[in-house]
């Protein structure tokens, strides 16, 4: 997903003689040499699953804040619970047989002992395989954040689908297009001062400076991170870099 301000859009707006204020960019952004920027979530994850599955339960609501490993969606397990119980019973039986073999170590022939070891290994692998399949049917949050999209519905049959989108807004990504004349003026670790389109000022730390320039727009990209613990700054809004 491309988050930074479209160069093509900027060129088109200039060609048509549109006032930059019409696209809700701060007044300082009217100077192209200042560099446009846009705020976006650093962490934006679409959680999904593979295969054909029926949604049994959607455990969260739109706009809900979740923590890492919180349950998001449960899929229909069909006959897996019964298979898991059978595999558990067979594993216990194989373990008891192995215990008896160990107790009779001086009596059992090597071939019979090897057979019991092999059977135990197979039963253990089968149980673990079904257990992992059961875990796959419970979708959990990969990180903390806010649920901003829910694509799964209870009772629906979905196939290789994205079920949910989660964004974390405590830190934001600042992506900017800078004019080619300022190439070499920025480096990772440098602090940027910026003004958002809502009028707030902030400081962000540069994490990346593009070593390549875009010849069509005569510009290059920089990226910075902005702390946003109180949610004051809004991702998706534009900003302008200050001197």
From TrEMBL:
Q: Indicate yes or no for the key word Transferase.
A: no
GO cellular component entries: efflux pump complex
Segments forming domain CusB-like beta-barrel: 176-238
User: Which UniProt keyword terms apply here?
Assistant: Coiled coil, Signal
Identify the InterPro entries for this entry: Beta-barrel_RND_2, RND_pump_MFP
**What SUPFAM superfamilies does the annotation carry?**
HlyD-like secretion proteins
Q: Which residues form the signal peptide?
A: 1-29
Q: Which Gene Ontology MF annotations are present? A: efflux transmembrane transporter activity
- Point out the coiled-coil segments of this chain: 84-114
Any Pfam family the entry gives: Beta-barrel_RND_2
Lineage: superkingdom: Bacteria
NCBIfam families associated with the record: RND_mfp (TIGR01730)
Which family does the record claim for this protein? Belongs to the membrane fusion protein (MFP) (TC 8.A.1) family.
Protein name in UniProt:
RND family efflux transporter, MFP subunit
């Amino acid at each position: 997903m491309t988050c930074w301000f479209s160069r093509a859009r900027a060129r088109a707006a200039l060609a048509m003689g549109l006032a930059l204020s019409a696209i809700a960019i701060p007044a300082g952004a009217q100077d192209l040499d200042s560099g446009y920027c846009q705020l976006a979530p650093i962490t934006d994850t679409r959680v999904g699953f593979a295969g054909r599955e029926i949604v049994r339960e959607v455990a969260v609501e739109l706009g809900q804040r979740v923590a890492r490993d919180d349950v998001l969606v449960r899929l229909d397990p069909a006959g897996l619970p019964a298979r898991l119980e059978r595999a558990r019973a067979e594993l216990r039986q194989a373990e008891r047989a192995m215990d008896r073999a160990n107790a009779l170590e001086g009596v059992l022939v090597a071939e019979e002992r090897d057979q019991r070891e092999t059977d135990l290994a197979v039963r253990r692998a089968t149980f673990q395989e079904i257990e992992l399949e059961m875990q796959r049917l419970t979708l959990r949050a990969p990180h903390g954040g806010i649920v901003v999209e829910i694509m799964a519905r209870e009772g629906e049959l979905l196939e290789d689908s994205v079920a949910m989108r989660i964004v974390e807004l405590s830190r934001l990504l600042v992506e900017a297009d800078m004019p080619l004349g300022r190439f070499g003026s920025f480096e990772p670790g440098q602090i940027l001062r910026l003004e958002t389109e809502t009028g707030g000022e902030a400081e962000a730390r540069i994490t990346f400076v593009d070593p390549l320039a875009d010849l069509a727009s005569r510009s290059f990209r920089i990226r910075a991170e902005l702390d946003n613990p109180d949610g004051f700054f809004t991702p998706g809004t534009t900003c302008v870099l200050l001197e």
